Amino acid sequence: xxxxxxxxxxxxxxxxxxxxxxxxxxxxxxxxxxxxxxxxxxxxxxxxxxxxxxxxxxxxxxxxxxxxxxxxxxxxxxxxxxxxxxxxxxxxxxxxxxxxxxxxxxxxxxxxxxxxxxxxxxxxxxxxxxxxxxxxxxxxxxxxxxxxxxxxxxxxxxxxxxxxxxxxxxxxxxxxxxxxxxxxxxxxxxxxxxxxxxxxxxxxxxxxxxxxxxxxxxxxxxxxxxxxxxxxxxxxxxxxxxxxxxxxxxxxxxxxxxxxxxxxxxxxxxxxxxxxxxxxxxxxxxxxxxxxxxxxxxxxxxxxxxxxxxxxxxxxxxxxxxxxxxxxxxxxxxxxxxxxxxxxxxxxxxxxxxxxxxxxxxxxxxxxxxxxxxxxxxxxxxxxxxxxxxxxxxxxxxxxxxxxxxxxxxxxxxxxxxxxxxxxxxxxxxxxxxxxxxxxxxxxxxxxxxxxxxxxxxxxxxxxxxxxxxxxxxxxxxxxxxxxxxxxxxxxxxxxxxxxxxxxxxxxxxxxxxxxxxxxxxxxxxxxxxxxxxxxxxxxxxxxxxxxxxxxxxxxxxxxxxxxxxxxxxxxxxxxxxxxxxxxxxxxxxxx
Length: 592
Ligand code: FHN
Prior knowledge:
By secondary structure, the chain is of the alpha+beta class. The chain has 10 helices and 29 strands.
């Protein structure tokens, strides 16, 4: 049985090389696996947190001079003089702010940590700082929102964490100074900037005791790996148990993070606004952050709210891949979390009240793929999250192995009828799902779980097209599925194949289009595509690189009869590089 080759990228050990920048703490941080596991334990148990983007940019409500598309990037995108932007600070007075209410909303939703923007790219500190007057003290809001949130989190038993941007559009020492920064004087000094950051981070850690510092804005030149090592080392010396994400290191971009490249500084990595198709294999800590609508901070015109079903499926999908879901709210200038967010969070909380044990403290699915939902694991237990409830009440779980009991989390006292078979374990479920979004079946598995690999059955569309995407294929050998959108890569061996199972109900002749990328070294590679006894061979032209995807018509193929077929692609000969990176294949019926 072919098994999928899924990218496994293991985090480097937490031992750091001494920092290289001047004045750096040179003593490297060393940590055993047990020490790291202890430090990471709360993060891995949490699985679900609240992200909060709230700053003086919120005063604009996303509008500036009649343009309504802004968020926390207001200053940059509208190129506002920093002297003019300071007017927002004078208007920041969120009289409706109630830290206890925010924390209650998070806790009732099943969130176990809260990450609030202490300082975003505009450099404005949402806390009183001795090292910059560009801070909350410059507003009419004579309170300390971080102190109030930290206290409320402590009372509620959830972790208080802070977001801190490295990039700073206001500070005179940020090397990539903007033309509209009319308040900055002198020549930027990167070492002096790093020292400023250290002072503010020391204020944050010693005043509010955050469990985690969420770095961001790490992608511009002034920031280097060694500054990242220095800052991480400094934080870990201030608080040996503190966590940071991998963005402290620098030169990561959200897309790059989706591949979880070697995070050697910081404790986990952070794909953003997407969920990697297959997770990252055992032992990799990661978290994806996502919005409710299309903005991180408050935008009064953005009504593109994701449904509770989508949000819940995201949470379950992320947990099934061993990750954390950091769901963002953008509070109003008055200090209120938008109702569209709070109602959805209440609905998620109602689901978590019944099914939270399948998320908190869970680890990744034992299955490479499930066609009806997702799964998470705990020692001796499997949690099956059924999105597509079977109409006849019969659910096939593709596994062998002894299962001592099966039951619905919503009806724990009622054992389910289970019948083992060659295709897996057949469960008899009630005809009606306990939850329209996702119902959870628990299997007590005292011994080894023996998953059975299942292929996706791809179907022809009503228009006759057959769209095939990388994450629904089966691969052999060393081929890897990676990134988001998922792509097939590392296709280095002439014997390695990619195939899709397709149920055809409208046979005929189809134009074949590949969504592929190919570096110069692969120009001229020859591929072979077969469907049953029909074959198509073609020569591939290089695109602008291995990340430059082009939809290319490569020929036609005939599928003579309806039914289940296998479409297979492989190199026609040993490629002198990877055959190609492939995101998908589309078969479009040709007019008879
Ligand atoms: O530029 C920021 C953006 O404003 C927002 O904070 C997101 C959420 O993490 N991070 C950066 C974009 O990747």
